[in-house]
Amino acid sequence: xxxxxxxxxxxxxxxxxxxxxxxxxxxxxxxxxxxxxxxxxxxxxxxxxxxxxxxxxxxxxxxxxxxxxxxxxxxxxxxxxxxxxxxxxxxxxxxxxxxxxxxxxxxxxxxxxxxxxxxxxxxxxxxxxxxxxxxxxxxxxxxxxxxxxxxxxxxxxxxxxxxxxxxxxxxxxxxxxxxxxxxxxxxxxxxxxxxxxxxxxxxxxxxxxxxxxxxxxxxxxxxxxxxxxxxxxxxxxxxxxxxxxxxxxxxxxxxxxxxxxxxxxxxxxxxxxxxxxxxxxxxxxxxxxxxxxxxx
Length: 296
Description:
Elements: E1 4-11, H1 18-34, E2 39-41, H2 69-81, E3 84-94, E4 97-105, E5 111-116, E6 122-123, E7 126-127, E8 142-144, E9 147-151, H3 160-168, E10 173-177, E11 181-183, H4 188-209, E12 213-216, E13 219-222, E14 232-235, E15 239-241, E16 247-250, E17 257-264, H5 267-274, H6 277-280
Parallel strand pairs: 1-2, 2-3, 9-10, 10-12
Antiparallel strand pairs: 1-17, 3-4, 4-5, 6-7, 8-9, 11-14, 12-15, 13-14, 15-16
Helix pairs in contact: 3-4
């Protein structure tokens, strides 16, 4: 059966003006929708600056309940443009319990489902453990009118287990809203190694699972308010890969860009017939994966 969908990727920079960020998102969503996008994917924590460069209790004021004002706003846009929309929000679940949460809207604007980021980094300039409680919703695809979306968030993209579990539960596409960039003290060679690894590992998820992958990163420089580092230069390079890991489209490293990419969803079944990795998995020998490390 033929099934082609057009996917809109929105790669943009952010400022401290949340209203302006959301207005720019609205404009970009309108543009990709008018160019035929049926599924639109936004970057991680797109409403604000990437506030995790420092640890400050004041930043918890950025969090919102789900449902809440932002889900009302983006649900309205999904309905207006008749698109499936993947967003990334700072969720206030309860006092002292906050999550980094992807929310998916269907074409009528209702919340089709959400995913709470499971893997939480804690690195210089990425102090996410201070803000985010690890997700507790598991790796479950979200059913929408255009198919089952295996949505994860940023740091999750380095882990093959999450991608596999999404695939085993019937995901038809893997999606990663992202905020990742260069640390200024790294050499140009090291920066290129990191970028290449980031693209390669996600293309590997496409190959290993026979599924398309969509990754949308932010772009631009954001200062470190503490002054301890020179801030983060987000590296853009949002991309779509096909089910054999082939790059179908990729944005630049420095520019704000909107892309609309057509993906043939039916190719996944053919690829899985050629490369039946799911069939040949030795699941009887994988018990060790449940251990942190195996000391033989």
